[in-house]
Design brief:
Shape of chain B: elongated
Largest sheet of chain A: none
Oligomer: heterodimer
Number of strands of chain A: 0
Distance between the termini of chain B: 80 Å
Strand content of chain A: under 5%
CATH superfamily of the largest domain in chain B: Rieske [2Fe-2S] iron-sulphur domain
Number of helices of chain A: 8
Radius of gyration of chain B: 27 Å
CATH topology of the largest domain in chain B: Rieske Iron-sulfur Protein
Helix content of chain B: 25-40%
CATH architecture of the largest domain in chain B: 3-layer Sandwich
Helix content of chain A: 55-70%
Number of strands of chain B: 12
Order of helices and strands of chain B: HHHHHEEEEEEEEEEEE
Structural class of chain A: mainly alpha
CATH class of the largest domain in chain B: Mainly Beta
Number of domains of chain B: 3
Largest sheet of chain B: 5 strands, mixed
Chain lengths: ~180, ~230
Amino acid sequence: MTAHNEPADPRPLRAVPNDGYTDWEAVYQDNAAWVYRTLFARVGNRADAEDLTTEVFLAALRPLRLTASVGEVRAYLRATARTVLAAHWRETLGREITSIDDIEQPPESEEAISTAPQRVAHVLERLPDNYRRILESRFLQGNSIKESATKLGISVANAKVLQHRALRLAAQVNDGGQS
Amino acid sequence: MNARGLRRYVDDLLRGRRPKAFAPDDFEAAQIRTAIELRAARQGPDAADAPDEEFLNGLHRRLAEQMAGAPPEPVPALNTTRRQVIVGTSAAAAAAVTAVSIDRAVMASQTDTPAVAGELKPNTGSWQRVASSSDVPDGRMHPFDLGSVSGFVRRIDGTPQAVSGVCTHQGCRLWFDAPDDRLRCPCHSTSFAPTGEVLTHQLPIAPKPLPALMVREANGVIEVFAPPRPDQPA
């Protein structure tokens, strides 16, 4: 092609797609953390979150096209995590407890990883004081039932009953807010 | 009702242990959901919401082993059976692969990619004849090949429209399946609407829609704006 055929403002020539990953290790290193956190937010324990993260990458990496853009790879990983999580609930509790939904935000964003903090805050502020305090102590602060009982100035037996009732009410508030 | 199963499940969550399976009813399921969210909302050093270094390194090793057995070119889709055998170190992983394939079929109808790719605007080009107006009655898909660009032109409500005739996945030439009113790729069963949207595919990631071509009609001739032929540089 001769010089006079050059367009007025030629776009820069780029080597390789600079929007993609060079190899599977780059895909793994860039995405493992948010995939794990997305799953942890939906199973609530490390052992299950690690197993499911493992399944996602074992299933997803081999068929992955590296020509795909970063955004496409992440959307694909999130879709894989969705099916892996759905299978986990089918196998363990026989029903879907939590899910990975279609959302506008990019999969690696905080809003996509977990809405648990906002949802929990919404639920807790609607509970009676004692209910809120026992759940905060047990779930958010990680105190034992004995420590929690001491903090609330009640017996261990009462703390157990209080936690049980508080979780029941929180679940009603939570599910009400969901629909 | 399974009060004991629920109590144990919540207790395991609180102790950071793997919870045991049981069959909860609706309300118990709601309580588990709430307990998981409460636990996941924990902040601070024992939140466990970030992956453990040791876990990440172990998984990296495992993936390296899996990928070492991979062919040089990653095979996109189709070979599900073989992949299941390789991935199938755990039955659940195999199930996940199957589930993802199903997901892919479903994804065909979703709009997770823009419905229409941009218009093809070559850096340099000229208006080139692709058909006489009478060759393209309303609704008929008319193929053309300009050497630099090939595609299909058709008339919608009198106005000509043109799309690229090359599959956006790996560049195979599309053919028009008139009874089904869609462009089909002979390579991996991808199909596109005459307007360029992906209708069906079986690839890990949906291919991009077909780019539209700039088209005009004047003096009984339909023309497409295309770069010069590779064998006739302007």
